[in-house]
Design goal:
Distance between the termini of chain A: 28 Å
Helix content of chain B: 25-40%
Largest interface: A-B, 18 and 23 residues
Protein name (chain A): Cell division protein FtsX
Order of helices and strands of chain A: HHEHEHEHEHHHH
Structural class of chain B: alpha/beta
Transmembrane segments (chain A): 29-52, 180-206, 233-255, 275-296
CATH topology of chain B: Rossmann fold
Strand order of the largest sheet of chain A: 2-3-1-4
GO biological process, one term (chain A): cell division
Helix content of chain A: over 70%
CATH architecture of chain B: 3-Layer(aba) Sandwich
Oligomer: heterodimer
Radius of gyration of chain A: 31 Å
Largest sheet of chain A: 4 strands, antiparallel
Largest sheet of chain B: 6 strands, mixed
Order of helices and strands of chain B: EEEHEEHEHHHEHEHEE
Radius of gyration of chain B: 17 Å
Strand content of chain A: 5-15%
Strand content of chain B: 25-35%
Number of helices of chain B: 7
CATH class of chain B: Alpha Beta
Domain ABC3 transporter permease C-terminal (chain A): 183-303
Number of strands of chain B: 10
Main location (chain A): membrane
Chain lengths: 305, 228
């Protein structure tokens, strides 16, 4: 048999399996509805959670990027002392960069940040009471505290400032919500798989006779199994449609509403395009995974071919 | 050719269905398998189409040892075999034509070949005029003819029939037997389990009687030998 014939046969077989799987989706009626609904509910929650998580991560990232240690240099330190302090800090393996910010600049920043009221501080330009500052950034935001503690012990350091407490709290909150969400999603994921595997089980039972005859006339096991895998796949993908539509609309609205309000702050949410397309892709993949997984479970258990 | 050597079959529930059988059936033979209910007839037949596997011993069929046949190879083995049942085992939602074509579709035969071959076998069983009917619209005898057509559509060397006339009235049973005779004269081996005394005694063939899981009698052109 030449190659062409084999390919043609394969396409025909795929067509047959597809027809069979669609037929039983129609025939299973309420069970199809129940399992598609389960996938839908799961994926809506997964989707909403995912959207929130990704945006929180994004915000966290912005804040993390912003986390810096401000090392106030003792006024008594000479240029050489400052230089040696700088190289000492730079030698810590966690440190990414050290930037020098002279006290004049510090004052300007202060004046600018206070706006109209800040003008009063201009008087201090003659006799600046602020310290020169090293702005230290760490490679990992979580190292901030460790580095701050180390720097505090060095000579000519008068004060060390970083978002004490706040940073840790934020990281803890994000981590905790991530964990809760993941547990919730895993639970739902398995519920949906269970429902799909039940639907497929019903198909298998309804087709017991047909399967038996197929076996008697010499159908291979794969040939018998394929329609059930496909049925699961369709159920999963059908279940992903509604969540994708809902999340796209909701995100579009929310982005329109929240986006302008965040203008001018350092917080930014992820833009509709390409984020929603990525989420849609993930939801379809998850739907397909749930569907195929559910059918594999049933086929393994109930289709002793 | 079918050959059984020292075959024993004990079910997990402790029942010994086959208690040492040695038998040889040549290509082209027509064999009746008779015996009282529960004597092991059914297991004997089931082992031939690899529905059951012997606990010990070997069953060779067309050179393949069924006792050692891997699960994966079973489908390929069954393509060279036709099986007919008392309850026909037709798919109620498919037409006569589709039921027969089904056997070729699942082994992925060419559509052109399927059309030609299905019409051929439906002609052989005289159902060419009813190809579009559903099994429920047919009489018992017609349904059995469809099932026979399906069993031979793969051109098997052996057809195994488990009480094929069990659900049919005497007249219809004879129609079915005529078809089996026809298939047999074309060189196909037929192994048929039956309780039909009249058929066995009239249409003489080799008779294998099974009692208590053993072969009690094996005669060429034998009699049914039981009082029903």
């Amino acid at each position: 048999m030449n190659k062409e014939v084999i390919t043609v046969m394969k396409i025909r077989t795929i067509g047959r399996h597809t027809r069979e799987s669609l037929k039983s989706i129609r025939r299973n009626g309420w069970m199809t509805f129940a399992s598609v609904s389960a996938v839908t509910v799961t994926l809506i929650l997964v989707g909403v959670f995912f959207v929130i998580m990704m945006n929180l991560n994004r915000v966290a990232q912005t804040i993390e990027d912003d986390v810096q240690i401000r090392v106030h240099i003792d006024v008594a330190a000479s240029k050489q002392d400052q230089q040696s302090l700088r190289s000492q800090i730079e030698r810590f393996p966690e440190v990414k960069s050290v930037t020098f910010s002279p006290k004049k600049k510090e004052l300007d920043n202060l004046v600018n940040s206070l706006g109209e009221d800040g003008k009063a501080f201009k008087l201090f330009e003659q006799d600046n009471p602020l310290n020169d500052v090293f702005v230290v950034k760490t490679k990992k935001p979580t190292d901030t505290m460790v580095v701050a503690k180390k720097v505090e012990k060095l000579n000519y350091v008068s004060k060390v400032r970083y978002g004490q407490g706040k940073v840790e709290k934020l990281f803890k909150f994000i981590k905790a919500s991530r964990d809760v969400g993941v547990v919730l999603i895993i639970g739902l994921f398995f519920t949906a798989i269970f429902l799909i595997s039940n639907t497929i089980k019903i198909t298998i039972i309804a087709r017991r006779r047909e399967i038996k005859i197929m076996r008697l006339v010499g159908a291979t096991n794969n040939f018998i199994r394929w329609p059930f895998f496909l049925e699961g796949l369709w159920l999963g993908i059908l279940g992903a449609i509604l969540p994708i539509i809902l999340i796209s609309i909701a995100y579009y609205r929310a982005y329109d509403y929240i986006g302008p309000k965040l203008d001018g702050t350092f917080i930014k949410v992820l833009p509709f395009d390409p984020f929603v397309y990525q989420v849609s892709g993930i939801l379809i993949l998850m739907g397909a995974l749930i569907g195929v997984w559910g059918s594999v479970m049933s086929v393994r258990k109930f289709l002793k071919v | 050719m079918i050959e059984m050597q020292e075959v024993y079959k004990k079910y997990p529930n402790g029942v010994t269905a086959i208690n040492g059988i040695d038998v040889k059936i040549n290509q082209g033979e027509f064999v009746y398998v008779v015996g009282p209910s529960g004597a092991g007839k059914s297991t004997f037949i089931k082992m031939m189409y690899r529905e059951e596997v012997p606990t010990t011993g070997t069953i060779t069929m067309n050179g393949v040892n069924l006792a050692k046949l891997k699960m994966k190879k079973v489908p390929l083995f069954r393509r060279n075999l036709g099986v007919v049942f008392q309850d026909f085992k037709l798919l109620p939602t498919l037409t006569v034509y589709e039921n027969v074509a089904f056997a070729l579709e699942v082994i992925e035969a060419q559509p052109k070949y399927i059309r030609k071959r299905v019409m051929e076998v439906l002609d052989l069983v005289n159902l060419k005029h009813k190809i579009k009917m559903l099994p429920t619209e047919l009489s018992g005898g017609e349904q059995q003819r469809v099932s026979i057509a399906r069993s031979i559509v793969n051109s098997p060397k052996v057809v195994i029939a488990d009480e094929p006339t069990g659900n049919l009235d005497p007249e219809t049973s004879w129609e079915i037997m005529n078809i089996f005779e026809e298939i047999n004269t074309r060189g196909t081996t037929i192994v048929m389990a039956t309780h039909n005394r009249e058929i066995v005694n009239t249409l003489k063939h080799r008779v294998i009687a099974i009692e208590g899981g053993r072969i009690a009698r094996d005669e060429q052109r034998g009699d049914y030998g039981y009082e029903n």
